[in-house]
Design brief:
39 strands; Immunoglobulin-like; eight-stranded mixed sheet; alpha+beta; 4 domains
Length: 807
C-alpha cells in the first residue's frame, strides 16, 4: 500500500491472487487505481489525475437534459466502378428542456477522403468551410458562446472523427451531412466495401489534464454490453459495376438486394436492422468470370488533371513456371528484443526457413547497433544451410542499439540473380531508430524487392510496422505470442509462394504523367490489380505500358490513353490522389513529426478541401439561437461493438473492498484494446485460476520498496515522469515477487528512454549487474509497455530510476 506522501509500498513476498480478478478485468491494462474506468453522466468533472479511459453512462437526475441527442444516422452509398461515394447524415434532436452541445465520436474507413460537410437547421442550410484545425475550433467556440448554431468536424485518427454540434435548442432538429469517397481495390477478384459503424473503447493512461486536446475523444461514455444503439441506423447502396455482376453478398446485416440489370444492383437494409449500428457493414461482390476491370479514369480540372489506372493482373501460373525466389530475413536482435520477443522471432524464422523449397535461396541479416550477415551471397535452401542458419539465430540473446537503416542498405546491396523474386521479411518490435530516410529507401527500391513486416512482441509499435509495409506495398503481420508464429508464417508463405508478376516496370510514352503513386510498382502476389494514380499535363494522348515477368513468360500490356475520355463525374480522383499523398506524409510524421510535413499535410487539406489531422470543417449559422442561459454539453453514448463485453470498458462489476483485503491489478493483455477488440485474458475471465484473498495482516516475508530518486534528461519534467511511475509500483512488485534474492537487497537502478509519443525504448538495469534473468526479463516486458505523456519536442527523455529495497 502506498503510505502518505513518501512513495513507500509494503509488498508481500508471497504470490497474491486478488479476490477481484474477475470483477476488475476492466483494469487488464494495469491502470493505477485512481485512473481506472469511470461511471459518469453527460460531461462529468475531470479530476487532474483522471485518465482518458472510456466509461459507462449513468443518466443524471436532471431529466431536462437529453442525454442521447443523436437520433438517427443514415448512409447513402453509390459505387461506380471502383470508386465509392458516401453521404453520411446524422440527425440530432433535443428532446429535453435545456440547450445542448452534442459531441459524437464515430468511425469511417481508413481510406476515406472526407471532402465536404453541410449543416441544416430548419429551412437553412450552411455549407461548412475547411480551415486549419486551431482556427476552426476557435471559430466554433466563438459561435457557441454567441449562441449561434454551429457544427465542427475533426479528425482524431485517419479512421476516427468527432462531430460537435452547438446550441441545439429544446425541440430543435439539426442535420449534419458529410461526404467522403474511397477507392475499392479488389483482392483475389473480390471487391469489398466496409462501412464502420461504431468506435470501440480505447484505453489511455494519459491524464485528462496532461493529454492534448486531440486525445480527449477517448474519454467517451458507453452503454453496457447487449444494449442496442440509442439511435437508428440505415444504409442504402447502389452499385454500378461497369461489368456484369456475378454475385453480391452482405454478411454483416440482413439486407434485400435487387438487380436492376446485369451491371447494376441496389441494396436496402431490412427493417429489423434499425439497431444494427453496433457492427461494421460489409458488402462483397464479384464480377462475371472473376474479372478485374482494366481501364483508365481521367479528370480534367481547372488547374490540374488527374488519372487512375487499374490493370488486370495475369492469372496464377503453375508451380513449375514460378521463377526462383530469394528471401532475406532482417531480424532485430537489439536490447528491446531481449527475452520474449526474440524467442518468438526464433520460432517464426524456424517456421519460415524450414518451409523453403530447395530451389529457393535465402539469407539472414541480424541487426542491432551493427549488422551481421549469414553469408555474403544468398544460399540455397538445402537442409545443411537451413540448419546452419537456425544455429546462428538460436545463439542470439539480444542487446545493443537498433539501427535498421544500415541493415536495409546492406540487404539491398546483396548480389541478386536475374529473374528472381526477392522478398525482405523484417522482424522487429518496432522500437527502432528508423529515420524517414529508411521509408524513402523502401519506397525508392520497390522495384528491387518486396517488403513484409512482422511485428514481434506483446506491445508492438504498430504505426511503424504497418507504415513500413505500406510504403513497401507489402503486408504487415503481428505475432504477439509464440503459438501464433506457425500460423502467421504459413499465411506469409501462402501469400508469396506464387508471385503473379515480378520485375514490374511502368512507362508513359507520349503521356506526360507526374506525381505518380506509387513511384515504383512492387511484385504482384494477390490477384489484385496493378494500380497507379497521379496527375498529367497536356493532351490526353500517348499510352501507359506495363511490363514484367509472369512465371517463365514475359508480360507486356499497354493502355492507349486516347481510348478514354475525361469526365467531370471522375472528380473524386483529385480527392483520392491527395488522400494518398496525405497518408504517405502522415506515416512519416508518426515516425518523427516535422513542421515541414505538418505544413504540407495542412496545405494539401486546404487546397483539396480534405479533412486531415490539421484541418477541420466548420459550419456556423448567422442566426443567434440561444440568448442567455447555460449550455449543457453531452457526449453521445456509444454502444459497445457487437460481441464486445463490459470488460473492455472496465466497469463490468465494481465490488466494495474491505480494508483487510489486498488487491492486485489484473494481468496485462497481449494487446491494447482497439476498435471492436476486447482485451484477451488467458483461460477466460478468471484465467482458469482459483480466486483467493489474503489479509493485510499476513506480513510474512514483506518487501518494502521506495522511490529514492528519479532523474530525467529531456523535454519531460521529473514531476511528470514521477507521476507516471508512482501508480505502477504494484506492477513492479509483481516482477520482484518470488524472484528476490540477496542480490536484490539495497538498491535497484533502472534506466530507459521515453520517445516523443510517450512510448518506452531501450530499457536496462544499471545496478546490480547480477540481477537474475527472471527479474530482468519481467521488468523489460513490463516497462516496455508503459506509456508517458507525449511531447512536441523531437528528442527523447532519458530516465534513471533508483529504488531502495528493504526486507
Amino acid at each position: 500500500m502506498k503510505s502518505s506522501g513518501k512513495g513507500l509500498w509494503r509488498l508481500s513476498g508471497r504470490v497474491i491472487r486478488s479476490v477481484v480478478a474477475v470483477a476488475m478485468l476492466g483494469f487488464v491494462w494495469s491502470t493505477p487505481p485512481q485512473a481506472g474506468a469511470r461511471v459518469m453522466s453527460g460531461e462529468a468533472s475531470e479530476s487532474p489525475d483522471q485518465t482518458l479511459s472510456p466509461y459507462f453512462l449513468v443518466k443524471s437526475d436532471d431529466s431536462s437534459v437529453d442525454q442521447m441527442p443523436l437520433k438517427a444516422t443514415t448512409a447513402e452509398v453509390k459505387i461506380a466502378g471502383v470508386i465509392a461515394g458516401v453521404v453520411l447524415t446524422q440527425i440530432y434532436k433535443n428532446e429535453g428542456k435545456k440547450p445542448l452541445e452534442a459531441i459524437y465520436v464515430f468511425p469511417a474507413s481508413t481510406r476515406a477522403a472526407v471532402y465536404g460537410m453541410r449543416m441544416t437547421i430548419g429551412e437553412r442550410t450552411i455549407d461548412a468551410q475547411i480551415q486549419r484545425r486551431e482556427e476552426a475550433r476557435q471559430a466554433y467556440e466563438k459561435a457557441k458562446q454567441e449562441g449561434k448554431g454551429a457544427s465542427l468536424l475533426e479528425q482524431h485518427r485517419p479512421n476516427v472523427f468527432q462531430m460537435n454540434v452547438a446550441n441545439i435548442m429544446p425541440g430543435d432538429e439539426i442535420r449534419t451531412e458529410l461526404r467522403y469517397t474511397e477507392l475499392l481495390v479488389p483482392a483475389d477478384s473480390v471487391y469489398e466495401f466496409v462501412y464502420p459503424t461504431v468506435v470501440g473503447p480505447r484505453y489511455s493512461n494519459q491524464t485528462a489534464q496532461e493529454a492534448p486536446a486531440s486525445e480527449q475523444w477517448s474519454a467517451n461514455p458507453y452503454l453496457h454490453q447487449g444494449e442496442a444503439p440509442p439511435y437508428t441506423f440505415d444504409l442504402r447502396l447502389e452499385l454500378t459495376a461497369g461489368l456484369p455482376i456475378q454475385e453480391m453478398t452482405c454478411s454483416s446485416h440482413k439486407a434485400k438486394i435487387d438487380y436492376i440489370d446485369k451491371t447494376r444492383a441496389r441494396l436496402q437494409l431490412d427493417d429489423s436492422e434499425r439497431s444494427g449500428g453496433n457492427r461494421d457493414f460489409i458488402l462483397k461482390y464479384r464480377l462475371a468470370g472473376s474479372r478485374i476491370e482494366t481501364g483508365l479514369l481521367l479528370y480534367e480540372g481547372k488547374e490540374e488533371n488527374f488519372f487512375l489506372m487499374m490493370m488486370q493482373p495475369p492469372r496464377r501460373v503453375k508451380e513449375a513456371d514460378i521463377p526462383p525466389r530469394e528471401y532475406v530475413f532482417i531480424v532485430d536482435v537489439s536490447g528491446s528484443m531481449h527475452g520474449y520477443p526474440l524467442d518468438i522471432s526464433k520460432k517464426l524464422l524456424k517456421d519460415l526457413i524450414g518451409g523453403l523449397r530447395p530451389r529457393d535461396t535465402f539469407n539472414v541479416l541480424l541487426f542491432a547497433g551493427s549488422s551481421e550477415l549469414l553469408a555474403e551471397k544468398s544460399l540455397p535452401a538445402t537442409p545443411e544451410n537451413v540448419r546452419r542458419a537456425l544455429e546462428v539465430i538460436e545463439r542470439q540473446r539480444g542487446g545493443g542499439g537498433t539501427e535498421l537503416l544500415p541493415a536495409l542498405q546492406r540487404a539491398l546491396n546483396l548480389p541478386r540473380a536475374e529473374n528472381v523474386s526477392r522478398s525482405f521479411v523484417i522482424a522487429t518490435d518496432g522500437y527502432v531508430t528508423l529515420e524517414p530516410e529508411a521509408f524513402d529507401l523502401i519506397r525508392e527500391r520497390l522495384g528491387d524487392a518486396n517488403f513484409f513486416t512482422f511485428g514481434i512482441g506483446t506491445s508492438v509499435n504498430r504505426h511503424l510496422v504497418e507504415g513500413m509495409a505500406r510504403v513497401g506495398a507489402g503486408e504487415p503481420f503481428v505475432v504477439t505470442k509464440a503459438d501464433e508464429a506457425p500460423g502467421k508464417a504459413e499465411k506469409l508463405r501462402q501469400y508469396i509462394q506464387s508471385p503473379l508478376l515480378t520485375r514490374v516496370r511502368v512507362q508513359f510514352p507520349g503521356f506526360e504523367a507526374y506525381d505518380v503513386e506509387p513511384p515504383n510498382v512492387p511484385d504482384l502476389f494477390a490477384e489484385r490489380p496493378i494500380l497507379l494514380h497521379g496527375k498529367w499535363k497536356g493532351k490526353a494522348a500517348g499510352s501507359i505500358k506495363v511490363t514484367g515477368r509472369s512465371g517463365n513468360r514475359d508480360f507486356d500490356e499497354t493502355i492507349k490513353v486516347a481510348d478514354y475520355r475525361p469526365f467531370q463525374e471522375n472528380s473524386a480522383l483529385r480527392y483520392l490522389w491527395a488522400r494518398s499523398r496525405i497518408e504517405q506524409l502522415s506515416d512519416y510524421n508518426r515516425l518523427r513529426a516535422e513542421d515541414g510535413r505538418v505544413r504540407q499535410i495542412t496545405e494539401l487539406g486546404l487546397e483539396y478541401n480534405l479533412l486531415t489531422a490539421y484541418t477541420s470543417f466548420v459550419a456556423i449559422d448567422s442566426e443567434v439561437r440561444r440568448k442567455g442561459g447555460d449550455l449543457s454539453t453531452v457526449k453521445q453514448p456509444l454502444p459497445l461493438p457487437e460481441g464486445v463485453s463490459d470488460y473492455a470498458v472496465g466497469q463490468a462489476v465494481r465490488p466494495m473492498l474491505s480494508k483487510s483485503m489486498r488487491m492486485s491489478p489484473a494481468p496485462e493483455p497481449r494487446e491494447r484494446a482497439g476498435a471492436g477488440e476486447a482485451p484477451e485474458t488467458a483461460g477466460g475471465p478468471s484465467g482458469g485460476k482459483e480466486l483467493r484473498q489474503e489479509s493485510l495482516d499476513e506480513k510474512k516475508d514483506v518487501l518494502t520498496i521506495a522511490i529514492e530518486a528519479v532523474k530525467v534528461d529531456g523535454p519531460l519534467t521529473e514531476e511528470v515522469v514521477r507521476k507516471g511511475i508512482e501508480p505502477r509500483m504494484e506492477e513492479v512488485r509483481k516482477c520482484l515477487e518470488g524472484q528476490r534474492s540477496s542480490t536484490l537487497a539495497g538498491k535497484l537502478i533502472l534506466a530507459w528512454d521515453i520517445r516523443r509519443d510517450g512510448s518506452v525504448r531501450s530499457f536496462r538495469i544499471l545496478s546490480p549487474r547480477d540481477t537474475s534473468d527472471a527479474v530482468r526479463k519481467c521488468l523489460d516486458r513490463l516497462i516496455g509497455r508503459w506509456s508517458f505523456s507525449t511531447t512536441k519536442a523531437g528528442t527523447v527523455t532519458r530516465v534513471m530510476l533508483t529504488l531502495s529495497l528493504k526486507e
